[in-house]
Amino acid sequence: MFWDEKYERFRGQVRDFCERVIAPRASEIDREGKYPADVISACAEQGYLGMVVPEGLGGSGMDTLEYTIVVEEVSRVCGSTGIILAAHNSLGIYPIDLFGSDEQKQEYIPPLASGKRLGSFGLTEPSAGSDAGGTQTTAELKGDEYLLNGSKCFITNASDEHETGYVITAVTDKEKGVHGISSFIILGGTPGFRVGKKENKLGLRGSDTAQLFFEDCRIPKENLLGEEGDGFKQFMIALDGGRISIGAMALGLAQGALKQAIARAGEREQFGKPIGRKQAIQWKLADMHTHVSASRMLIYRSALLKDAGKPFTRESAMGKLYASESAMFVTYQAMQIFGGYGYMKDYPLERIYRDAKLCTIGEGTSEIQRLVIAREVLGR
Ligand code: CAA
């Protein structure tokens, strides 16, 4: 058994913070549809903006399991805050930590880890969604600078309202297919780079999702991450890690819905007794609990494999697939247990129900997870 008391103590501290600071703001964040700057700066004080970053670079030096527990617990009370932290840590910082030069790490990671700057990942484009290799944005080397042209869409944490840093992909050599894609670091506010319209979403309404535009945008050639042509693989590796955090987010949302459903089953009386005494409801709760527990086992296992330096591509895809589809199942069953009340905005359940859907889409749809798993099972 991989479990250790130290992680339960850690969870207790994180849960206490989440219940005190984030939970009271969750429904307002959703209603206002606005980035929760106050909550994110409270998270920064807890060290949640640089979770797996080494302490020498201003981070908290957590292991991946601790990081997973934080995303799970935060998402249990507020999905919007959960995805802001997951995208920032896994996709905004992690590629720089993994592939950056010492100079790039020293320059870009500390402001991200302290929360001074929010991190973001620009891969998706109008014609490069599931087919991430279909990237059209170009980066042309001109002297000491790269000239960027193109656009990105559905970019989490993209905003002009606070300081931001992005890792983005662009084609440096059209002839080489995915081996001609490179990745770059770019800061918000760079001339020629602008954030487009903020999307109006079904759920996770407190997290900013926007387009990015590059119009003859010049960045120093030192902003290239790794070598030219490495970008696609770097992003695939970053997504392997990111999928653990989206799985953790789905797990947290499912746990939040399950908690509501258990309470409701004890309180709500029909036919002269609490509905939780009816087998129809008991079986739902048993299935929901089983889905949540199995999701947790898969996700924690991928986190442990990652920390042990073992391959985890298949495991993180399985964890994300199972946890996100379980979140759909659990929130659906919770809604059935609540009946009409669950459909009303007076209860948090409808927010959780809407928030959970993104987990089957973001960082690779369920269909892409199955493709990744099948390739690993069958051999590429
Ligand atoms: N680790 C290391 N290398 C990898 C890799 C991995 N996990 N996956 C692929 N590669 C390498 C391959 O080995 C191959 O290298 P060689 O050519 O040297 O052998 C190269 O990358 C190309 O791989 P494929 O041939 O497998 O590439 P493909 O075009 O067939 O597509 C895919 C692979 C898995 C479908 C990929 O395109 C993919 O993951 N798509 C989904 C994209 C995605 O998840 N988008 C989410 C956007 S981010 C987001 O949503 C964030 C948010 O806001 C929440």
Fraction of residues in β-strands: 15-25%
Average pLDDT across residues? 97
Uncertain residue segments: none
Number of helices: 12
What global shape is seen? globular
Bound molecules: acetoacetyl-coenzyme A
H and E string = HHHHHHEEEEEEEEHEEHHHHH
The strand line-up of the biggest sheet is 1-4-5-8
| Topology, number of strands | 10
Q: Radius of gyration from the CA trace? A: 21 Å
What can be said about the biggest beta sheet?
4 strands, mixed
The percent range for helix content is: 40-55%
Verbal overview:
The chain is α+β, with helices and mostly antiparallel strands. It has helices spanning 5-22, 26-32, 37-45, 64-77, 79-99, 102-113, 231-267, 279-307, 313-338, 340-343, 349-356, 366-378, and strands spanning 118-122, 138-142, 145-156, 164-171, 181-187, 193-198, 209-220, 224-225, 269-270, 273-274. The strands form three sheets. Strands 1-4-5-8 form a four-stranded mixed sheet. Strands 2-3-7-6 form a four-stranded antiparallel sheet, covered by helices on one side. Strands 9-10 form a two-stranded antiparallel sheet. Helix 9 packs antiparallel against helix 11 (349-356). The longest helix is centred in the middle third of the chain and has 37 residues, at 231-267. The chain is globular, with a radius of gyration of 21 Å. The protein starts with a helix and ends with a helix. Acetoacetyl-coenzyme A binds next to helix 5, helix 7 and helix 12.
Give the topology:
Layout: H1 5-22, H2 26-32, H3 37-45, H4 64-77, H5 79-99, H6 102-113, E1 118-122, E2 138-142, E3 145-156, E4 164-171, E5 181-187, E6 193-198, E7 209-220, E8 224-225, H7 231-267, E9 269-270, E10 273-274, H8 279-307, H9 313-338, H10 340-343, H11 349-356, H12 366-378
Parallel strand pairs: 1-4
Antiparallel strand pairs: 2-3, 3-7, 4-5, 5-8, 6-7, 9-10
Helix pairs in contact: 1-4, 4-5, 4-7, 5-6, 5-7, 7-8, 7-9, 7-11, 8-9, 9-11, 9-12
